[in-house]
Specification:
The protein is an alpha/beta fold and 358 residues long. It is built from nine helices and 19 strands.
Length: 358
């Protein structure tokens, strides 16, 4: 039997291995653990030599990675992990990098205004607007999330307990919202802007803050707005607010496994995180969807309530169940809380999650 190595990559990528012994191997597309992969059958080369792996895909920046190829210790493997590498779109791979089509609600699902089905493939990036206002270059974060499969980022407009982010302390806070939304649109990303979190501590003028956020974001085609994250513990009563006009809006998410008290265009669902209920929490969301007849999104599905080796399979299960039972889901991660680059493990889980939502 020939030695072989499996590299997890996008299914339409081209994978080539150039061995230092002078041999070139081309991979055959296949699957590994339910994901697109490439199989390299390797024979007739000495053990322990260096090799260069090249991954190319139309419309993406080529990746070249160098490592040592071991065929016998223990079994066929390469000392570089291709599934740790994501492919970044080239600047000209998506010619229309301007305004995205608006999303509308049709029954219990989302569609674009031109009639195409649209699935919510979100990613928690709570501190992204704060990073943007601070002058940081957030484009690498946008590119990574998009390359892994996200089409939307869930961004908080204020925070106290994760990091200090008070709107009243930010110069140009409201006027910068359209520019921020347009930057995400240029990367083919929608945004769910969460107006309130930790309001019981921050105490901005509630009605004025929400009105100003909606006014600034209303003209952007790629925007959803959520009134408040888990409002029962964050100082907001959604009954005191009216649904904004001209924006797809959620009145806010409740606590784990609880339906919101107020419903607008769609709602976010925060399922339970205890095992084994975490694996079926989208079922409870489905009953609320059927009762309200609006889209529901599994907004903060849990990840690490089990050992790390289970995470990628739980991520796939959470994504698949949200697709079947709802209108999509948001990938939630420790790095996403602070809008930091994903680790290799988190990237792997995100890939599984978004593949299941596709």
């Amino acid at each position: 039997m020939k030695p072989f190595v499996v590299f997890t990559t996008p299914g339409d990528a081209h994978v080539e291995l150039r061995h230092d012994a002078g041999r070139i191997f081309h991979a055959t597309p296949g699957t590994a653990d339910g994901r697109p992969a490439h199989l390299l059958a390797i024979d007739g080369v000495p053990d322990g030599y260096g090799a260069r792996l090249m991954v190319t895909r139309e419309g993406f920046v080529p990746v070249e990675h160098r490592g040592t190829l071991w065929l016998t210790r223990p079994g066929p493997r390469a000392e570089f992990a291709v599934d740790d590498i994501y492919l970044t779109p080239t600047a000209d791979s998506e010619p229309d990098r301007g305004e995205l089509p608006r999303v509308v609600v049709v029954g219990t699902h989302f569609m674009t205004e031109d009639g195409k089905p649209w699935t919510w493939k979100g990613c928690s990036d709570f501190m992204l607007y704060q990073r943007f206002l601070a002058g940081e270059d957030i484009r690498p974060i946008l590119e990574q999330r998009r390359a892994l499969g996200a089409n939307l980022l869930r961004v908080f407009g204020m925070l106290h307990f994760i990091e200090r982010f008070y709107p009243q302390e930010q110069g140009g806070y409201y006027e910068s919202l359209p520019t921020f939304a347009r930057l995400l649109a240029e990367h083919r990303l929608y945004v769910e802007f969460v107006a309130f979190a930790d309001q019981q501590v921050i105490r901005v003028p509630e009605q004025a803050h929400f009105t100003d956020c909606c006014t600034q974001l209303r003209g952007q085609s790629n925007v959803f707005i959520e009134l408040c994250n888990e409002y029962p513990k964050n100082g907001i009563d959604p009954r005191h607010f009216s649904k904004p006009q001209g924006l797809l809006a959620s009145a806010g998410s409740a606590l784990a496994d609880q339906p919101p008290a107020v419903f607008w265009d769609f709602f976010g669902w925060h399922g339970r995180r205890d095992w084994p209920k975490v694996t079926s929490s989208a079922e409870d969301m489905w009953y609320v969807i059927q009762r309200q007849q609006i889209p529901g999104v599994h907004d903060e599905p849990a990840r690490r309530d089990r050992p790390a080796q289970y995470d990628r399979y739980l991520a796939r299960q959470l994504g698949a169940s949200a697709l079947v039972l709802g209108a999509g889901a948001t990938f939630h991660s420790p790095e996403g809380l602070r809008s930091e680059p994903f680790s290799a493990l988190t990237s792997d889980e995100a890939w599984m999650f978004f593949e299941a939502l596709s």
